[in-house]
Every structure is written in structure tokens, then in C-alpha cells.
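@channel sequence for tomorrow's demo:
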Amino acid sequence: MAKKENSFGAEKIIWDLSDLFTSLTDPQIKKVMTTSLKKATEFEKKYKTKVDTLSAIQLKTAYMSLEELLMPLYKLSQYSSLRYSVETQNEEIKQLVGKIDDLESEISNKLLFFDLELGNLSKKTITDFKSNGELENYYYSILRSYQTAQFNLAEAEEKVINIKDVTGMNGYQKLYSELTASFRFKIKLDGKTKELTGPEIRNLRLHKDPKVRAKAMKIFFEKYKENKIVVTHILNHIFKDFNTERKLRGYESPISVRNISNNLPENVIEMLHEVTTKSNKLVQKYYKIKKKLLNLATMTLADIYAPLPNVETSFTYDEAKKIVLDGFYAFDTEFGDIAKKNV
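C-alpha cells (generated this afternoon):
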């Protein structure tokens, strides 16, 4: 049987998340939530106000305790996030996500002293830790806490921000996800009217017929236009929330927040922008060639992913995997090894 137009053969593939949790009613979920909060409380009681007194071995032990505490919670957070990403209208999943958000905020507030106190260590202590083999796996984290300490607020203020974010910026991001995931798009294809989801109608950018591509994109953007009041409010609120906190913390510019988080100097990013801007003729040349190959009068946003004519090449999963991994290995051996473990 010939494969349907725009079918990628994965329509019936569903994530198997059983390595994380068996279901939403898995008793391990409640156990992780209870145990994580208990361990966070114990960690706070044991180490708060004492970080500057810890030896290298004691600090290593503290980090290992943190890993033991956070890893199960991270797995639970990933499980709920992955379930939510494909079932944004499922009330049971939304309730679990909400509970985890609240729990992570509470645990974050119990643990934030650790980063704040690391940031207040003396330069000599940081230097001494660098040469201590016990902290080899944790030194970068210690150093970054020290280097970014100037952007920390007082503990009480940091706690308020953690609590606020649940219903503030994070809440608005979830609202946007739920709203846009609920969008349905009606389009007439092959004489039949179909109701598509966002990913499905965006897939029509790969359709061979330019009229179908253009119609799909028009319908897609019209839905957002219909909801422009809500979408615009969400976007503006997130911008304002981000910029208010950015100013409170003393970051010079909005992009500085990301650059410092990524440990990248401002001049390196500026150089990247300059090189990219100077090289934009390359992508312009590419789209001019593609426009000619597609025999289009005008190249639009709907055409940038259009398939080239007379190209019917397909790849098996194993062939595609090899192509991707070869690309990673060409970039960096360690990067390739990490990618290989995850496919």
C-alpha cells in the first residue's frame, strides 16, 4: 500500500514511558513526591548556614545527597511533562503537573540557600576547591554559583519569586500551551474537509502542491489571529515578568541573562551575530535556487520546507539514525557517544 501524502509512518507510535512510571496511578509517584520533600527538609536542616564550614569531602557528600534527592523528582517531572505535551486537555495529567509544580517550588525554596551560600564563599576557598580531586565532578557548579552570585537576591526575595513563578510566568506559559494545543484547523483536501491539529496542519508545509501549502499556512495563522487578544496578553505578560526580574537582578540587557546562564561572553555572542548577519547571503542564495527548482513565481513562508521535485528518496529508521549519529560524531566524539546512548 502506498504511503499517504504527508504521512511519516509514525502516526500510531506512542511514547513508552514505563521506564519512568507505569501510569498516572503508579504508587511510586506519591512515594517520590513524599520522599523528595522529606529529603529536602533534612538537607536544609543539615547544611543551612554551614556551607562555608564544609571540607571538600563534606561538600562532595552534600552534592551527592542533592543528586539522590533530585534525580527521582526530575524523572517524575519529565514523565508528567511528556504526558502533558501530548495530552494537554487531560484533567488528570493537568492535576499531576500542577502538584509537581507546587512541590518543585517548595523544594526549590528549601534548597536555594545552598547556591546562595556557595556564591558567598571566598575566592581562596574556590581556588582551593579547584585543585581538590574530591570535587572534580562538582567544581564547575561551585564556580558558576560563585561567578553569578552578583545577580542573586536575598533569600526571602528568591523564595517569593519561586512561589510567584508557579502562577506567574510559568502559569502563562502553560496557558499558552493549553490554548494552542486546543486549536483545530478545518481544511479541504482531496475534496474532503478535514479537522487537523497544529502539528498536522504544519506538516502540510511539506505538501507537493504550493496551493495546499499556502492555504494551510493561511488557515494556521488565522486561528492565532482569532485569539490575538489572549495570545498577545500572554506574550506581553511574559516579557514584562522577565524584564522586571532581569532589572531586579542587575543584568545589563535581556540577552545578558541567557549569555551569563550559558557562560558565554557578550563579545562572543556579538561576533556570532555579526558573522551570521554577514553570511545571510548564503541562505538567500539557497532559497533563490530552491525557488527556481520549485518553479515558483514567489517564495513564501509556506514554501521553505517544500519537497524538491522528482525526489522520492526515503530512509529506514536505522539508515536515518546512522546519518544523524555520523553528523554528531563528525562534530565531536563525546557528543556522538552521548547521542548514541539515547537512540
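heads up for whoever presents: The chain has a mean pLDDT of 92.
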